[in-house]
């Protein structure tokens, strides 16, 4: 009943008298039903809501009832998307969008703050690069800081700050008396990392935009077959799921700009359809590169998933869910 207490506290922040009652919870289907002024509604609670979380709210449910998302913090972009999809929401700061048959509320005070401080050492680009290493191989939490520094292209100081923040914020716990640690709450950490990846890591590693040479004749999937050019995003998803026809192309490469033109046969173009990035990781073991994923030359599924789920494109999100179920969920 902890959620019920939180939800009541959220509604107490509003200048409206609203009767909130808990009705039922189906443990098998994970469905909570409440009433707001006697109108039945599903309620889902989260600490934070970011754009990548929203597709999970659009699942099929047992009854045809509206949904209310109750969260301590909801990003401005997420609020806009929720309103567009007519999904009701309320946060811990007294902001709400409720569009029911007999109850209409819209309050936006612009006063919400992230659940974790903007100054958290988890929210930096370098911490995002370290967290990527840990999410793809959680056992690396017990590697030396020097190892993590080299693998994630981050300074030793950054690794120390990131690990300390992970412990302080409950994502890393001591496992036994031998000072072994374990990465926990991995799903929540993945949500946080997706935002860091798209908002900080990608911009910080961007090489530039290019267009395909006319010599390719549209055969993009046959062009890059070496390990110094790895597909990500939509083309990577197309290769491993056969579900997408990519329109936006992403490639990670260590090649110099001169080699991009001569070897990859890409032409610089600020309006081009392909964006190139430098890898933000160093593979310490051949299997880490994941180039044998269905024998395709692609980046790790975490990167593919993070790009697709953040795109707010319904087809991309469907492909992201396929990738999540097969390659990511078993490791969380």
Description:
The structure is a single chain. It is built from ten helices and 14 strands. By secondary structure, it is of the alpha+beta class. The chain has three domains: 106 residues, Trna Endonuclease, Chain: A, domain 1 (3-Layer(aba) Sandwich); 81 residues, Arc Repressor Mutant, subunit A; 127 residues, no CATH class. 33% of the residues lie in helices and 22% in strands. The strands form three sheets. It has a seven-stranded mixed sheet with strand order 1-2-3-4-5-6-7, with helices on both faces. InterPro entries: AbiEi_2 (IPR019238). Pfam families: AbiEi_2. This is Type IV toxin-antitoxin system AbiEi family antitoxin.
